[in-house]
Amino acid sequence: MAVGTRTVLALIGGVVLTVGVYLHASDREEIGLGTMAFGFAISALWAFLGMELARRGEATAPAETYLSGGMAAVTLAMYFGLRARGYGDAD
């Protein structure tokens, strides 16, 4: 069975998000938040690729499902990216 681009993006995104959560939990908060932002950016790429495949009829879920997931991933990437840069801190 061949491994497709979406599978590779899903695996990389999952690993990056896991590393980000670990870094955040081990008191390396800034780098952990940045890593999570990068992981959600990879997740957004996965979702938008799925949306394009759904429009071509090559995916099982409708394009709207991938669009909503992609927009959630973009929003989370922006949130964690801003938090990593220090925006939104109460200090």
What structural keywords apply?
single chain, 91 residues, mainly alpha, 3 helices, elongated
What does the secondary structure layout of this molecule look like, with pairings?
Blueprint: H1 5-25, H2 29-55, H3 63-84
Helix pairs in contact: 1-2, 2-3
Average of the residue pLDDT scores: 88
Shape: elongated
SSE series: HHH
Supply Rg: 15 Å
Question: What does this protein structure show overall?
Answer:
The protein is mostly helical. The protein is built from three helices and no strands. The protein has helices at residues 5-25, 29-55, 63-84. The radius of gyration is 15 Å and the shape is elongated.
Outline of the structure:
This protein is mainly alpha-helical and 91 residues long.
